[in-house]
């Protein structure tokens, strides 16, 4: 067993993506829009600080107005992003002297992976310029521009330029945070490398990992490496998430490892009513008892993705018996279920539910009451299993599965599309309103 586990773990360490996302130029534009008020607030704090006491009172300048006029974030294919900011400054040096100046900041940004494995926003180049727009006094009577330069700490602005955006590194780190699925099962999305930059947008590849009861589990190895499908045309959505078939199979494998599909079902039958169909049941129990079905997975679930639909194949073994006073099984039945999955997104969670049973097959695995025909098994237990198995799947997944996301942003205008072997989720970003 230890050799087998070591092989599984070593196979799992082959790092390959099973999901990812493309942040489009539209998404970058939205991030710039929502970052503009934040940037203005940060710049006000930095620029409207008390004046430098080393300057004489005659030449001291006070910045009393900071307004971000333009704030844009554009994609530079193969390189990163370009941040462009124009800031209008109102400066007074005396009661009768006011001048307006414009601070322009041009910075090149990119996201790289730090030694801890987290994505980090980095400034690779920053060029600030300062020019005068207009003044209430003649040029010779206004304080010199060099004094204004002393007031504006250009190096500090360039050092902290990434803080002007609403997705600095604390939020990027939240991308790889563990998210609960069930009380004992958690999911994480681990970035595999720094993002790539193309005309379509910023492409991030992620690998899903799962923990069950606090321990990482070795997942099945994907037979085919997954890569983000290139959109046929430029997308109007801010973001397109993509999930491989392997992502969904791994999810249900993790839930199986957590025992999420093991369930006890009370049937409408009793030992007396069952004895009318299977006579030997009557000899096992002296009193009439409710018939109970204990279901557990016998092999790993499997997910099939086809154009327009997702199918979960669940392989269960159902022990059928009665509690007298402990559970006493007299039949063991293999149950193979194919259930249609419905996929939707609420906030930042994918809601997965079993919409309908497409196919179900019962076969006798073991019996203490003699041979039982498949047709009789279906007559006795099929209605209960058909109703209760989807109910159990839905009970397990009712909270949804958190999607990769950064803190304070949620997803809107979502369209979930199932394709052969992968699922696409085009959506828009929305900054959540602060409370309190």
From TrEMBL:
Signal peptide coordinates: 1-19
Keywords, in A-Z order: Signal
Pfam short name (any one): LBP_BPI_CETP_C
UniProt GO molecular function: lipid binding
Domain Lipid-binding serum glycoprotein C-terminal intervals: 233-427
PANTHER family: BPI FOLD-CONTAINING FAMILY B MEMBER 4, BPI FOLD-CONTAINING FAMILY B MEMBER 4-RELATED
Name under which the protein is recorded: TENP protein
Gene source species: Piprites chloris (Wing-barred manakin)
Source species taxonomy: Eukaryota, Metazoa, Chordata, Craniata, Vertebrata
